[in-house]
Design goal:
The protein is an alpha/beta fold. The strands form three sheets. Strands 5-4-6-7-1-8-14-13-9-10 form a ten-stranded mixed sheet, sandwiched between helices. Strand 9, helix 13 and strand 10 form a beta-alpha-beta unit. Helix 4 packs across helix 7 and helix 8 packs across helix 15.
């Protein structure tokens, strides 16, 4: 008998603000957190823009000594997790720590530490490499550091599925609670890879846009889309078993009711052209929830602003939703915060929860005109205020990973 799982806390570090309230205020206002890269000199780079986190000072939000032993992706995760726990009003001193788990993923980990220590090794020799290089760099350290910072001692893992990491982490945390592995899960995604080798690598792959206009750089589903804008940040949520949440008088924000995860088995970077893999993930999530496509009012699309993703994801939505695809509202948060890679699913899940709570679907900012095959409602021009009972969040990752979460307005 699967247990019901609800969301009771949210935490975020984003290019629009370093907490959920400021992030959501920016989303509602249609702000764009994209600008010229400030973290390094881009003179020799074709891609000049990124969606950087601004004014983030780790020692102001967490223990200073601990912060010095973490790279950005771990710092972002810890800050977002602490905010989410505070939002959920969970006092870990009163919890059985072995019933509270952590699944927080990062698609990349710390490229900066690899860059920095490679240079140091070449200039000064291998004996001068930072002894903390490995524990700072590896992707599981976001989850490990969240566990250490919060005292959560239950199941602690990280899912690494490139840009689907955050969504798979939340999905696996949902399963952990459903089947009794934990009562509370701290789950989401984090990333901090705006650095020379990261930008150079994605540029060489022709994945990044070289547009220099922040308002036209990340334009999902637009006929002039030319690649994604790299972003950074973290989105972490608290999920609980329903009866436990009710017993402690928690403020229940939403309920997770469906999760689908599939593979394309097609190509290392491109989604399968007919969208069948992502379509099946969406269909599986709806099947688990027991809902029909016409009951889903809103899809937060992966929507990267690359040619292949937006076209093939549109095909996937049509395949999964049939005639209902023409009625569902679809947007891409990446139009405002760029592509947060492994953190994207966590932040976009938060957008879905807030959309349900506020009855507000943000516009796909910057997108003006689509093309013949992109003929769905991508919420272009202005946001929509309407009741949202079911919201779906899609994530697709290099390697052919597809992940979908279905979130419902909570009803007892």
């Amino acid at each position: 008998m699967k247990r019901r799982v609800v969301v009771t806390g949210l935490g975020a570090v984003t290019p629009l603000g370093n907490d959920v309230d400021s992030f959501w205020a920016g989303i509602r206002a249609g702000k764009v957190g994209i600008g010229e890269i400030t973290k390094f000199d881009t003179t020799d780079f074709k891609a000049k823009l990124a969606a950087e986190v601004k004014d983030f000072v780790a020692k102001d939000r967490m223990d200073f000594k601990s912060a010095k032993r973490m790279e950005l992706f771990s710092q972002y995760a810890v800050v977002a997790a602490q905010e989410a726990l505070e939002d959920a009003k969970i006092d870990m001193n009163k919890e059985d720590p072995f019933r509270v788990g952590v699944i927080v993923g990062s698609g990349i980990g710390s490229l900066q530490s690899m860059e920095r220590e490679e240079h140091r090794m070449l200039e000064k020799g291998p004996s001068r490499v930072d002894p903390l290089l490995v524990p700072k760099m590896i992707t599981n350290m976001a989850a490990g550091n969240v566990s250490i910072a919060t005292g959560a001692r239950g199941k602690c893992t990280n899912v690494v599925t490139a840009c689907a990491s955050g969504t798979n982490c939340i999905g696996d945390a949902y399963r952990a609670i459903q089947y009794g592995d934990a009562d509370v899960m701290i789950a989401g995604g984090t990333e901090g890879s705006v650095c020379p080798i990261g930008v150079a690598g994605f540029t060489s792959l022709t994945a990044l846009t070289t547009c220099d206009d922040p308002m036209r750089a990340s334009i999902p589903f637009d006929k002039e889309r030319s690649g994604f804008v790299m972003g950074e940040g973290a989105g972490v949520v608290i999920m609980e078993e329903l009866e436990r949440a009710k017993a402690r008088g928690a403020n229940i924000l939403a309920e997770v009711v469906g999760y689908g995860a599939t593979a394309d088995a097609y190509h290392i970077t491109s989604p399968i052209e007919d969208g069948s893999g992502a379509a099946r993930a969406m269909a599986d999530a709806m099947k688990e929830a027991g809902v029909n496509p016409d009951q889903v009012e809103y899809i937060n699309a992966h929507g990267t602003s690359t040619h292949h993703n937006d076209l093939f994801e549109t095909r996937a939505i049509k395949a999964a939703f049939g005639e209902a695809a023409k009625k569902v509202k679809i947007n891409s948060t990446k139009s405002m915060v760029g592509h947060l890679l492994g953190a994207a699913g966590g932040v976009e899940f938060i957008v879905c929860v807030k959309s349900i709570l506020d009855g507000f679907i943000h516009q796909t900012v910057g997108t003006r005109e689509t093309e013949e095959d992109l003929d769905l409602d991508y919420v272009i021009g202005s946001p929509v205020e309407q009741e949202v009972n079911y919201a779906m969040s899609n994530s697709l990752g290099f390697g052919g990973h597809n992940a979908t979460l279905l979130i419902k307005k909570y009803q007892d």
